[in-house]
Design brief:
The structure is a homodimer of 408-residue chains. Chain A has two domains: 2-207 and 323-405, Zn peptidases (Aminopeptidase, 3-Layer(aba) Sandwich), CATH 3.40.630; 210-321, Alpha-Beta Plaits (2-Layer Sandwich). The first copy, chain A, contains twelve helices and 15 strands. Chain A has helices at residues 2-12, 29-44, 89-108, 135-141, 146-151, 160-167, 192-196, 234-252, 288-307, 328-340, 355-359, 386-405, and strands spanning 48-51, 57-61, 69-75, 116-121, 178-187, 200-206, 208-217, 221-222, 257-266, 272-273, 276-285, 312-321, 324-325, 345-350, 365-370. In chain A, helix 3 links the parallel strand 3 (69-75) and strand 4.
Chain lengths: 408, 408
């Protein structure tokens, strides 16, 4: 499907990091450039562009003008600083082409479509510049207040509301339709499809995640003459905790995923023992009991090892993301469509967060994965073969058609 | 000596961090304010102010106008971000008062002084904003080229030369005298004097230091779905290396000091496994063989542990500071003076770097320590009792008098 590949190439050039990847942080010039191109593509394809107050962008196809109901399809155009070109953009651009194709199919088959259709680009899915992530979809779902979303600040103290104003994407009104279903197509970012040599995953739910941010309080001191026994070294305690996280997960051998990926150190001078360190930790597993048991063992061990160094630990943030079960009818539909198209499909749970997980608080959602080579993502070498992209697009389009034409 | 204590209080207010400490990084407004006050104090006390091209500041007393020879006394007014009020400022301000007092003593005892005397504030001793440290004293000693010093850049890319211009302390000419000796009075920053209940240390030399900056190269990837076995986590490798450093030093039990105090992580996003991490490590001991053996064991172990994680280590910097022996005649003189004044003196080696260690490349130096409570330094709670400060001042003044009046 060369039109899809060409569109993906065009968007990959925006915020290109020169190594195959992209850096399109929310509210930056690269984000604006991607949004501007997306508006042009929506309009040129005869869809109606809409921008809501949190900057979510819609391209609406009026398949059934008498209906207020709308099926939505999309993902996000923002990226991590070391983002790949598929993560998010694939779902938005495949969604755009699917909406256009189904608009044409509805015209060719009058009377079949019972509801309208829109492609969407959600604001700040990644949470790289502004936390929390999934911002636009959470506001749309009603789980995050608009004013709270506007007030999120980046590392330089700039608020998300101001950043949206600066690029001209703070819209003035809500989408005027009644959303009834949401479908998201995404690269898996893991290697389960690849290992099973399958084409498609219908996602049935999400792993449990616990995100913990710990602060290690020691005491600043000269790195040279300060007697070793008198030091209270916050960076050493943090280093022990990082290794403790991974080794507890390995020791369990229960298949949990874990990471410590962000650290801040004060004063971070080569000549001053760190007085205060903060580290962001996370543990994920499909079973909540494993997440709790492992994370609690990690916390106890870190506490004990820090105390042995005279360092105090406190929890600055402790976020639990509970198991999510997605609409089973949607899972069945994706399997039927994949089967009808002759593709091999699995049912998987998602390990990563996606806008679909925010939207399912409001309406039923379907999340569809295609394979990621070697499970690599948030990396410029993230890759999915053109043929695999096309298969995802075919499943997406047929799934959406059945949704807009279904009797109920 | 209330004049000394009052002066120290006045300087501690400049760049005060509100918790007893100071933050006076080189070339900042706080540095300018401290320098401005120092110039005023020099002038008001009838000394001749001089600024050299690297911003070293002198206050000269012409005790013997026919001589080109000058004895120098001083330290530094810059600080760490979490600096105490004694580190550096004590040596400069005690030196200022000593020069003033000896100028008066020379007037009262005509014909006794054989050479001139100057107090000095060396630029950027700490190396907190600009690396390397000991910048002004190294330029003065001839071991660092002026142009290289000017070119040192801070974290924002601002060059030291431009920073000195900005605060008006890039002088136009070298000091017009011939330096013959340098004396520096400093707080110990360790606890050896306190444990020995001694008043004064005559410093006979410096520990060997090896400073290593290691870069850990892994691969960016999504913290969630990326299969654990496929990850190449640079932060985990760095954490292991930090713990390896300390545990190798403890295992040796040879009395070495070690630290890892600065880290930089890319991309440092909570959702992206770190692809590249740099950590600054150091090991210090009086015996070079211990430093080499321990640091090499640390490097081997870190390499092995990183390789097990698929992470590559490379050495970005590897700085050896060799053993330094200070002028033995100076050590003897300090001991004689302390004895004559009824004080208990030790001979120690310094663990920390000091301007005296840079200056000894050009002329003989004497380095004198007074106790630091609990050995705490680079910390707002750094403390030396007023009485202990006075004892150091008394030894300093008498040592300088004997130097300027000695026959040779």
């Amino acid at each position: 499907m060369s039109e899809l590949h060409d569109l993906m190439t065009a968007f990959a050039a925006i915020g290109s990091t020169g190594d195959g990847g992209v850096c399109r942080l929310t509210g930056t010039p690269a984000d604006k450039q991607a949004r501007d191109l997306f508006v042009r593509e929506i309009s040129q394809r005869g869809l109606l562009p809409r921008i809501d107050p949190i900057g979510n962008m819609f391209g609406v196809a009026m398949l059934m003008p008498a209906s207020q109901d709308i099926v939505m399809v999309g993902s996000h155009l923002d990226s991590q600083p070391t983002g790949g070109r598929f993560d998010g953009a694939y779902g938005v651009l495949a969604g755009l082409l699917a909406v256009q194709a189904l608009r044409d199919r509805a015209i060719a088959n009058p009377g079949q479509a019972r509801r309208n259709l829109a492609v969407v680009n959600w604001t700040n899915e990644e949470g790289a510049r502004f936390q929390p992530s999934l911002t636009g979809s959470s506001v749309f779902a009603g789980s995050l207040a608009l004013e709270d979303a506007y007030a999120c600040r980046d590392g330089d103290g700039i608020a998300l509301g101001a950043a949206l104003d600066a690029i001209g994407y703070r819209g003035s009104s809500e989408l005027e339709f009644r959303p009834v279903r949401y479908v998201e197509l995404h690269v898996e970012q893991g290697d389960r499809l690849e290992r099973a040599a399958a084409d498609i995953a219908a996602v049935s739910g999400a792993w449990v995640t616990r995100k913990m941010s710990l602060v290690f309080e020691g005491e600043v001191a000269h790195t040279g003459p300060t007697p070793m026994a008198r030091r209270r070294d916050a960076l050493r305690a943090a280093a022990r905790a990082i290794e403790a996280l991974y080794s507890e997960v390995e020791h369990d051998n229960a298949g949990a995923h874990a990471a410590a990926a962000r650290i801040s150190v004060f004063p971070n001078s080569p000549n001053v023992i760190a007085g205060r360190v903060r580290v962001w930790f996370e543990i994920r597993h499909h079973n909540e009991a494993v997440v709790l048991a492992t994370s609690n063992r990690f916390l106890e061990r870190s506490q004990k090892e820090a105390n042995a160094l005279g360092v105090e630990i406190s929890m600055a943030a402790d976020e639990h993301r509970e198991t999510i079960l997605l609409d089973p009818a949607g899972v069945d539909l994706v399997h039927r469509v994949a089967g009808d198209l002759g593709m091999k499909a699995l049912t998987l749970q998602t390990v990563a967060g996606h806008d679909a997980l925010a939207i399912q608080r409001r309406i039923p959602v379907s999340l569809i994965f295609v394979p990621s080579e070697a499970g690599l993502s948030h990396n410029p070498r993230e890759f999915t073969a053109p043929d695999a992209l096309d298969k995802g697009y075919a499943v997406l389009t047929e799934t959406l058609w059945r949704m807009v034409t279904a009797a109920s």
